[in-house]
Write a structure and sequence with these properties.
Layout (H helix, E strand, L loop, with lengths): L1 E2 L11 E5 L13 E7 L3 E5 L1 H4 L4 H9 L4 E12 L8 E7 L14 E6 L2 E5 L1 E11 L2 E10 L5 E8 L7 E5 L8 E12 L5 E2 L3 E6 L4
Antiparallel strand pairs: 1-14, 2-3, 3-5, 4-5, 5-13, 6-12, 6-15, 7-13, 8-11, 9-10, 11-12
């Protein structure tokens, strides 16, 4: 549980997430997958109306006109996708957060005012070739990609659920960007002034590429 009205401790331990396998017709039940995804301790910081607009001046006057009615908070967390021993990578993953103010009516529930990132796309590579670079006593190998001439892109992450209480991010691995390592996620939360709000630990799901 993440209390949004209290300071958080950045030194607290990370939280490992168990993934429950999706059952397919005719397949036996499989145990939860452990040790592949972890969440760092979420950090919460109060924002001014100007900070909450993210530089979008069109919203500044509106937020300042409601300064006594709402508070704005920045909720930030890091999700770590870990490689497996057998080499099976993630094909896709989803991370959702439910914002809530227990006991308050629907009109006074917290909402996600903005998501970061909202979208991140990567150019499609139409060709690739191996390069070798000699530096002193070492030879470094790399892969250079030629961008697709049609300007096509592949979505790596997309956020959805702005102005709602259950925002989420969806990740999709691409040919050139495997889903592994740390990903920083953040959202600006709008909370009615004086209302204690909270967010249960994020809901996480993932799907692995299966070989054979």
């Amino acid at each position: 549980m993440i209390p949004l009205d209290q300071p958080t401790d950045a030194t607290a331990p990370t939280h490992d997430i168990d993934l429950v396998a999706t059952l397919l017709l005719g397949e036996p039940a499989r145990p939860p997958l452990r040790g592949r995804i972890s969440l760092g301790t979420p950090l919460v910081r109060r924002l001014t109306a100007a900070q909450a607009t993210e530089g979008d001046e069109d919203w500044l006057d509106f937020l300042e006109s409601q300064s006594g009615q709402y508070d704005y908070l920045l909720l930030s967390l890091v999700c770590s996708f870990r490689p497996s021993v057998d080499g099976s990578p993630f094909a896709d993953a989803g991370i959702g957060i439910r914002l809530e103010a227990p006991g308050e009516p629907v009109a006074r529930q917290p909402i996600a005012w903005a998501l970061l990132p909202k979208k991140r796309a990567l150019p499609v590579a139409s060709a690739a070739h191996l390069t070798l670079t000699a530096r002193l006593m070492f030879v470094e190998a790399g892969v250079e990609y030629t961008p697709d001439p049609n300007g096509r892109e592949e979505l790596f992450v997309v956020g959805m659920g702005e102005r709602d209480s259950d925002p989420e991010w969806r990740f999709t691995a691409t040919a050139g960007t495997p889903l592994v390592g740390d990903e920083t996620l953040a959202l600006i939360v709008r909370v009615p002034a004086g209302v204690p709000a909270q967010a249960p630990l994020p809901l996480t799901q993932g799907r692995l590429v299966r070989y054979g």
